[in-house]
Amino acid sequence: MAELDTVIGILGTVAFAVTAVLAVIPKGIDVFGATVMALITAIGGGTISDVILGVPSSWSKDLTYVWVALASSVVAFYGNGWMKAEQIYRLMLYLDAAGVALFVIRGVQKAMALQFALPVGPVILGVIGGIGGGLIRDTLAGNTNLLMKHELYALPLTVGAVAYLVLAQAFPGHTSSISFATILLMFMARVVTIDHQLVVPRWMLLGEQGEPNSLTLVAPP
Amino acid sequence: MAELDTVIGILGTVAFAVTAVLAVIPKGIDVFGATVMALITAIGGGTISDVILGVPSSWSKDLTYVWVALASSVVAFYGNGWMKAEQIYRLMLYLDAAGVALFVIRGVQKAMALQFALPVGPVILGVIGGIGGGLIRDTLAGNTNLLMKHELYALPLTVGAVAYLVLAQAFPGHTSSISFATILLMFMARVVTIDHQLVVPRWMLLGEQGEPNSLTLVAPP
Amino acid sequence: MAELDTVIGILGTVAFAVTAVLAVIPKGIDVFGATVMALITAIGGGTISDVILGVPSSWSKDLTYVWVALASSVVAFYGNGWMKAEQIYRLMLYLDAAGVALFVIRGVQKAMALQFALPVGPVILGVIGGIGGGLIRDTLAGNTNLLMKHELYALPLTVGAVAYLVLAQAFPGHTSSISFATILLMFMARVVTIDHQLVVPRWMLLGEQGEPNSLTLVAPP
Fold this sequence. Notes:
The structure is a homotrimer of 221-residue chains. The first copy, chain A, is mostly helical and 221 residues long.
């Protein structure tokens, strides 16, 4: 399990960095700026979450994700023509989906272990850990962030975080299988979303919001 | 006094959430995004302030404001037509005024109790606690934030925070009446501002800034 | 050396505040908002860096920079016509260059002393301390931030931070001369950049990015 975590975490970080670079290139950024944006995307959310928890940033103990993000972003910058190819970009979206599901559940577990603001706190911190870096990146780059779109991204993560929390409190002896199951379901929900370009259901929108912008789903940004 | 605090705090949080939702709805947000924005508005400023102080977030011990913000935001989203009615919206602005005055002074008191960066620190942290969440919300939503407008919002809060600090240090035995008086005065200053759509005085502006945008004052955003 | 630090730090903070005010005035800000922006620019980066390090904000112990930023911003707001004069503005850019070089290296040293996330952590925290406040200011003001431009600003700071880190680990007995040399070199690199309006080299850009926006370099914003 620990090895699978490491593999998903690294592949997810690669995807975070690559999609971050592709998202900021149209803004006319240089390789240095792109690398900073990739790093913010990869470790920004976890850093905020750790600061709120009052624990040292996870990257202060293990720099793996930092190195992976730095290396991936340089490759993605100079290889951006290749990365934008539909198959590659779709693969990145799938890896992003796996990575973010893992990071959210690990964030929920970390906050639960610290008994932080139960029951809502772990959900808030898990979701911040998962999407916080992307929010900062979009804000700095002047892009519309995912909260302002109707793409199913943060919502399934939040549902997954709540599901983990409820199940882990009901069946405390089975956290590792609950973790595995929720990560898998969040990942699959996201794969279906990507493949079918799903957006939030109609009842979550107001009347005049009938044409959501879902272009970011599959097309390269 | 503690009961009055609780009532003002809850009503203020309702107003934070409702005005946050109304501010982001024109951007085409869905109910999930609107709820996140309301939560950020309600607890974002206090969270930053607590992190700078190096103390646990207040919502890690008491989730009342979190629940109030979540519930209010859903009601405001689906009831937004009703909330935008002038009488309701004006009521929300008054409740917001009372809530933010309370949160600023409680923030000042918290920093003073920790002797943090006296004499300026408590003012900075009180104001961050009061307006920080709104600044993050506006930034994420792509709205112009209140620092870039000429509406009298952060300025009276800052004056009130300074007044509390000065008076509480001069008369340390009377902090609860000083607290009551400054909150009341900040609230009344804001009510007058809302009713008369006041903007910052002329000498605080540069020559070419003669037509401040004060539309956010009374008209629903 | 401590006196030189103090002088550079204060002059750098003056420059941070003045350039911040000049950067937000075109947005139609009033003197209160301009002062807040100057304060954020002056102490924002260091505050984030200290929060990530888990140490109290440096301004909680010494408010010198806070007072300097507040006073300078008021002077810059009302004296903005005079500050925008080419000679004065260029002087401010030079002082900013000296100040930011100092703050980056002091940030690197602080993180190294705490053994934080060696070897990359001190570089990240030093650069955040140097440019973080400006990033927040630009984001709040709706200006394009320096990461999205091709001006040589954050890049030479990062190179300087890496150089200090490498040299200080190789020659631990000579940190004060290494500090002096790297600050001087970073300052000189920035002076040359300002005087010749340098932008990032061609190989750091993608094909379609041939006309970088370097207007912020010397012309008043």
